[in-house]
Amino acid sequence: MIAIVDYGSGNIQAIKNIYKKLKVDTKFVSKPEDFEGITKIILPGVGAFDEAMSKLNESGMRQILDEMVIEKAVPVLGICVGMQIMAKASDEGELKGLGWFDAEVKLFDSKTIKHKPKLPHMGWNEIRPEMEHPMLKEIDLEKGYYFLHSFYFKCLDQDDILATAEYGKQFHCAVSKKNILGFQFHPEKSHSNGINLFKNFAEL
Amino acid sequence: MLRSRVIPCLLVHKRGLVKTVKFKSPKYVGDPINAVKIFNEKEVDELIVLDIDATVNQGEPNYKMIEHLANESRMPLCYGGGIKTPEQAQKIIKLGVEKVAISSAVIDNPKVLIDIANIIGRQSVVVVLDVKKNIFGSYEIYTHNGKQKVKRKLYDFIRELESIGIGELVINSIDNDGVMKGYDLTLIDKVRDSIDIPLTVLGGAGTYEDILELIQRHKIIGAAAGSLFVFKGVYKAVLINYIPEKIISVIRKISKA
User: Fold this and answer.
1) Does the pLDDT at position B94 exceed 90?
2) Is the pLDDT of residue B100 over 90?
3) For chain A, what is the domain count?
4) What CATH number has the domain bearing residue B240?
5) Minimum mean pLDDT range among A47-61, A145-159, B169-183
6) A169-177 and B125-133: which strand pairing?
7) What average pLDDT does the structure give for chain B?
8) Taking CB atoms and an 8 Å limit, are B198 and A120 in contact across chains?
9) CA-based nearest distance B249→chain A, Å
10) Residue A8, domain CATH
11) Which of A136, B27, B92, B136 has its CA 20 to 30 A from that of A78?
């Protein structure tokens, strides 16, 4: 059973709808007891870093998430700000991140973006794989994914980079470390390419 | 490379979808949820839904409808209509909408954008400005479906919006609405020159060539259209449609050039 973490941030219903179409069971989890029988976790997120982080801290699920992800190595997928909070810290906020990746979240330098528009990075962009990974099975790289952000995830350990995208420069748009995955873009709003990604996660 | 977005814009009036001409004579074109389902199948880049009754009726946004739209939509959704406060914006984002569009509320109080951006993030804050050319050839901002003229200079105002901090500006040409004779490229050039944030333009697209011309000119831009994606043929028969894959390939090539 895949858990979709409901802490008041991110489009949980859209993710549930996609899995319903794929005939994969999911459930919303909002307290530690809900994690009974869970084999995979999706951590969505939208909005500002501190807003997401404080909501997660207040949700009472911090400890169980660390336990499931770090000790029990349950596969977890972070989306957008749900990915960013897996870093240690962010330029966008004051609060500490989950620290699951040796990474930080930085603001794009608009000086390196030579075209208009500059920020935010908004729209469909291609992605480039940086490692072989089952998550990228049957993904149309040129079609790419929908992005909506001004801050980007920066891996300090190069081995964690799953895919990059270009916006002013190459940045880390997908990351992977053992059982932990993070995607900056929005697979839940990226049509068939997004659906395939959720399918691949279910099949991991 | 990032490519231009091609965005159907749907107008909601009395719970149905309508299409106007120069902001007048709304014609019923179907059911909003049904349209979203068709646009899902066509893998549309993004969708804008504007409730044109909400501000005029001075009521709350129709959250039930927004939730339903957001749940059905497998593409990014921007909702506008009746949003005045950070609380309303937050509620709409929580329903699963990616971006909220604000219009008349920013005219009275542009600073409200700061409070909204602090909660939902700047990237999700969109301002829609309806503009119309006056007899002297300069552009003026209107609200309340083109009925109230705003005493602000367009280019100064959009620079102010950018400096306050928004994610995207949508410029809607009232003169070109529903006319299907092409975008107002002069207006668009001037707006693009004035600001750096993502820009989406609406009003006038009648053919795929109109869209390609705009994208050729600006490389990365949001090309929105109403009539083009809800009507077919000279008699304007209602048929929800979208640009074919071969046009998307052309757009991809333009972004790489």
Assistant:
1) no
2) yes
3) 1
4) 3.20.20.70
5) A47-61
6) unpaired
7) 95
8) yes
9) 9
10) 3.40.50.880
11) B92
